[in-house]
Structure formats: C-alpha cells, structure tokens
Amino acid sequence: MRAKRRSYDIGVMAILAAAALSFAFWLVVILLGFHEAPANAPATYETYFQQSNWWPYPFFLLALAPVLWLTWEPMLRAWSQLAGTGVLQGPGGGKPDEATVQQVLRAVRRKRGGAVATSVAIALLVNLADLAPNSDVLLGTAKLDQQLRFACSYPGPFVKWIFVAQTADSETVCALPAEPPFPGEGNDGIRPPITQLLFNAILLSQQILIVLFAALAFTQIMLHTLLFALFERLAVARAHGLHLMLNCRSPLNEFGLEHWNYTLNNFYWAASPAMLGVFLSRAATPPEDYLPGQVMLGFAVPACLIVPMVATIIARQARLPIAWTTVQPDGPVAPEDYRRQQLWPLDRNWSSKLGILLAFALAALSIGFEVSQLVRL
What we know:
The protein is mostly helical and 377 residues long.
C-alpha cells in the first residue's frame, strides 16, 4: 500500500524560514556594531538589543507560525468534517461522497491566492503609511536639522550614523529647543553608510514580513467565513447541488459546527500572545512619541481578533431562518432538540472556549488603552 504523502503548508515554511533568518540577523547586528551605542550618543540612546519592540522579531515570527497554520490546514479539516456532522449536504439533504468533499476542499484551496494577494497589499500599505513620513530622514535626503530632530526624538540604531557623524556632544545638541536656530539648520543631510542602509533595510523587511504573515492569518480566517456565508454561490456547490444547513439535531448541541468551533478556539489561544507585541511596542515608546505604525498596531491587532468572530456569528445567524424550516411542524426536528443547540462558538462549557474569552479580554484592554491615549493626546 502506498504511504500517504506528508504535505507542508508553504505559509508556515515561509514564516519559519523568516524566523531563522531573523535569528541570523543578530550576528549581523553584532558584526556591524549596532549592539553598541556611539561614543557621543545621548543617555536615552538604546542599542538594538535594548529595544524590546525590535530585537524579539524572531520570536514574534515563531509565535505567528501556529496562528497562520491554524487558519488553514485545521480549517480545511473542519470543512471536510461538515459532511459528517450533517451540515454539508447534497441534493435532497443527503451526505455527499468523499470525492465530492475533496472537490470542495480543492475549491477552497484555490481561493487562497486571493488571501495572499490581499495580505501583500495590506503589508505594503501599512508599512508605507508607517515609514513614508520619515523615509527622507532614513535615506539621508532630509536636511540636517530634520535628521537631528528625528535622531534626538528616537535615539536608537536606526539613526546611529547621525550621532556618529556629529562632532558636537549629542547631549548638548538634543538639549537645544526644536526651533530655529538649530544645529545644521538648512544644511544638507548626512548620507547613511552602506552598513546603516543594510541594517535598516533588513529591520524594515522584518517589519513588513510580520505584518504580511499576520495579515495572511487574518485574511485566511476571513476567507473561510466568507466562503461559509456564500457557499451556495461557489461553482463546485452549483455543480453538485451542495448546500450548507445548520444541523438542528446535532448530538453535541453546536449545530454540527463543533469541529469549526474547536479550530476557532485553538486559533484564539494561539493568537492571544500576538497582543504581547502591542504591549511591548507601547512599553518601548512614550505616548507622545508614538509612530504611525504603533498607533495602527494598537488598533489593528485587536481588530484582527474581534472581526473574525463577529463575522462568523453573523454568517451563522444568516443561516438560521433556513434551519427553522426543519423544526416541527414544518420539519422532522423536535423543538426541544433545536433549543439545545448553541449558535455561538461559546457553548455552555465556557472553559473549553477560554481561548476566545482570553483573546477578547486582551483585545478590549488594548483598544481601551489606545482610546485613552488618543484622548490624552
């Protein structure tokens, strides 16, 4: 008998490769000297390994790996199990055969390309919005006074070359008011050396990859929800007369969606640590010095946890009216069987859904913090 071929998710392999390269980047940091502060740096200068929102990037990538995996392979298995729980039905309400189920899975897989393209667009747009305001400083095309103001506001490895190039004491320079006259007022900026450009490019590439993989996890979970809501419009569903029907007689009282609920709960358990990145970013920067990307991070990460669950509930709610037709006197389902079913992923055994509760609590805490900071500013 031929052994079953083991498949590897290309997204997970890509994120693991990015994590491995990010660990290797630590050696580059040391070789290029970004683990040390320049001699004339201000006391507030932080080296690469002192910035808690930058050096742990390899761990952030590793933390995203299970999140990304849970939004694809386990969700595909949850799709395949809908036939066994009576949710995925063929013509006349019958159970579709295995070959038809596999066609459904192939149809879902083909939609992944759209999720990838959307994620790439999100990553590019988010990082463009974050980096564009200061790109001229980092590229050395800004005036010297602009570079000095930025370097004094965000003293760290990103702007190390600006401090290295200064002959004056940085404490004295940064203590001056950020109004004219300012040292270097109107002068051309200092071009960063190739080592600085290499460091900045690699670090920003890590940031882009973080956003890309996080966006991919979000778009994949949203893709499954969208396909669940619009399943009957898929070509494979029309070709085989397939439809989704909530099982009002499910013995586990979850409308036959127990495998889907189980996967969602595991996703939220895995996604909860992503909130750590938000709090680390906030702890590393005073509220008055937040960069655009940090503000977006504070709202986007909680939204990526809340929106999929809300969308899932809406998609299920939209299917309830058709399910009612199976309840007596119009159908074979006894009213008491229907009343036992739980539409929300949170069932009576709430402890088994603790991942969802934890994720929502952290998301609410983060959004509340962001709003309070905006009000203060």
